[in-house]
TrEMBL record:
Catalytic residue positions: K124, S199, S223
Keyword flag Repeat: no
InterPro entries noted in UniProt: Amidase_dom (IPR023631), AS_sf (IPR036928), FAAH2 (IPR052739)
Amidase domain sequence ranges: 65-514
Transmembrane segments: 7-27
UniProt keyword annotation of Plastid present: no
Gene3D superfamilies the UniProt entry points to: Amidase signature (AS) domain (3.90.1300.10)
Keyword terms: Membrane, Transmembrane, Transmembrane helix
Pfam family, one: Amidase
Stated name of the protein: Amidase domain-containing protein
GO cellular component, one term: endomembrane system
Domain of life: Eukaryota
Length: 530
């Protein structure tokens, strides 16, 4: 534990408490409040895999499905502000072509070659969709368009799926709140005065509102799982490297960056996760995932930990209700005969035998590992014809609204420049500690274990709070560093009507364990609700 970082955490909490009344007045009293209109069409409540089956069996035409989703997007967009640019006209043409294939081809041919034929989906703007905007929410790239599809979009198109739009992100995808100077602020469909998170916040907002059948997001420190938590959907950060990130911006050639950043599915139904992950995965990784092999929930060992540490003055503590809901899931599996254990039931017993898995320093480990990336995408020198702008000067200007960059994005670069207020001499210590913990967790989880762990310490925060809540990164970024797969699972609502849940984590290439448990939790506790 680093004293300077923890002191900074205390200061951050004090600032948050001082700002809270003003943010409440600005967003709850004088801003947009309430939630988006309810769903009216049952077509919008069908999972992607079931919808694909209904389209190819001609229960619905692809054109009808696509038009219904377009209608829903147009209904909720004035509330959410989650769409950067759409391709609705081209999507309807794609749907008509899909319906023609269904008329002419055999059912077996369609199932084998186009498993998602006619199913619409949405894409985070940082992931290229040919012809659509690809600026990733920064003024210097405003108006830039993708000249080709990202590989993951190519794969889904090849499976017959139809992209509808690209959705909002924060500037350069470097914070947990979708607010930028290009497209503005994105709102949470459950409570408009709160954030849908980031950086896959636009995808989360659309999916949570039932305006997307499924979405594609990216995650380097929780950017799929935290937004999924905030809006109450399933979001999967896959095993590192199994899905190509080619076509994602920002990018880097640093090996650690390429390992930490992942692309994955965001959806309302757990049953979609295996199919989407399989179709998105690199061909040479599919056999390692064994997603086509049967798996029985009863064969999975469950470990759980409701918080990284005991009560902390410097860190945001996990809400009691989130911990309680996790324990309800634990009790469910225990009553069904599964092997369920607390990760560290006794500090003294396990520590003396050398197998204590100390998550208390996961914030320091995450920060040092992320700050160890040398070739980070540089926001301040994006325009290659001009000299790099001074970070500290731009940060000061941003406090008065005078910078072309958002304060939240610049704040990230300050953290990187200062190594998260951790002495550089300590960086190697925490990087090494992370590697040791990784091996311990791999040995603990094996091929048939999962870990229940918080996704974020609380439900969706109010707009403007992202920089004071950044210590919550310790719960998600740690598993990007580890390269482990992790699925956020929704577990109902809190007292204010906001979704809550937790993540299910497995050892590398054991994504299917996460999916099996997610499906069981959905069946037992209801999953996505709106």
């Amino acid at each position: 534990m680093e004293l300077t970082l923890r002191i900074y955490g205390i200061i951050n909490k004090i600032i948050n408490y001082l700002l809270a009344p003003f943010l409440y007045l600005y967003f709850d009293i004088f801003g947009k409040n309430g939630k988006v209109p309810p769903l009216k069409n049952p077509i919008l409540e069908i999972s992607a895999v079931d919808l694909a089956e209904k389209i190819r069996s001609r229960e619905f035409s692809s054109e009808k499905v696509v038009r219904e989703y377009i209608k829903r997007i147009r209904e909720v967009e004035p509330f959410l502000n989650a769409v950067v640019e759409n391709r609705f006209d081209d999507a309807i043409k794609d749907a008509k072509r899909a319906d023609k294939i269904i008329e002419e081809a055999s059912l077996i041919y369609i199932i084998e070659n186009y498993p998602l034929l006619g199913v619409p989906f949405t894409v985070k703007e940082s992931i290229a969709v040919k012809g659509l905007l690809h600026g990733t929410a920064t003024i210097s790239r405003k108006g830039m368009r993708a000249d080709k599809d990202a590989i993951v979009v190519e794969k889904l198109r090849a499976a017959g799926a139809i992209p509808l739009l690209v959705s909002t992100t924060p500037e350069y995808c470097v914070t947990w709140e979708c607010n930028n100077y290009v497209s503005g602020r994105t709102l949470n469909p459950h409570k408009l005065s709160t954030s849908p998170g980031g950086s896959s916040g636009g995808e989360a907002a659309l999916n949570g509102a039932g305006a997307s059948c499924f979405g594609i997001g990216s995650d380097i420190a929780g950017s799929i799982r935290v937004p999924s938590h905030f809006v109450g959907i399933f979001g999967h950060k896959p095993t590192s490297g199994i899905i190509s990130i080619d076509g994602h911006f920002p990018t880097s050639m640093d090996k650690s960056f390429l390992k930490f950043l992942t692309i994955g599915p965001m959806c309302r139904y757990a049953k979609d996760l295996p199919t989407l992950t399989y179709l998105m995965a690199n061909e040479n990784c599919r056999s390692q995932l064994r997603l086509d092999q049967p798996i029985h929930t009863k064969d999975i060992d469950i470990y759980y930990q409701t918080s990284a540490s005991e009560f902390s003055l410097s860190l945001w503590n996990v809400d009691e209700l989130i911990q309680r809901r996790m324990l309800e899931a634990v009790s469910h599996f225990k009553s069904n005969g599964l092997n369920v254990k607390r990760l560290n039931p006794s500090y003294n017993d396990h520590h003396q035998h050398g197998d204590f898995i100390d998550m208390n320093d996961s914030l320091e480990i995450s920060i040092c590992s992320l700050c160890d990336v040398d070739d980070i995408p540089d926001l301040l020198s994006n325009d290659k014809t001009s000299p790099r702008k001074d970070l500290w000067n731009e940060l000061l200007k941003s406090m008065f609204g005078l910078s072309e960059y958002t304060y939240a994005a610049l704040y990230f670069y300050v953290l990187h420049a200062t190594n998260g207020f951790i002495p550089k001499s300590r960086k190697e210590h925490y990087v090494k500690k992370g590697k040791v913990l990784r091996e311990k967790l791999i040995n603990k989880l094996g091929t048939n274990g999962v870990l229940f762990y918080p996704t974020f310490p609380q439900s969706a925060f109010r707009h403007g709070e992202s920089t004071t809540k950044l210590s919550g990164v310790m719960y998600t970024a740690f598993f990007n560093i580890m390269g482990f797969p992790s699925t956020h699972v929704p577990m109902g609502m809190d007292e204010s009507g906001l979704p809550i849940g937790f993540q299910v984590i497995a050892a590398p290439y054991q994504d299917r364990n996460c999916f099996a448990i997610a499906c069981e939790i959905e069946a037992a506790f209801g999953g996505w609700k709106f």
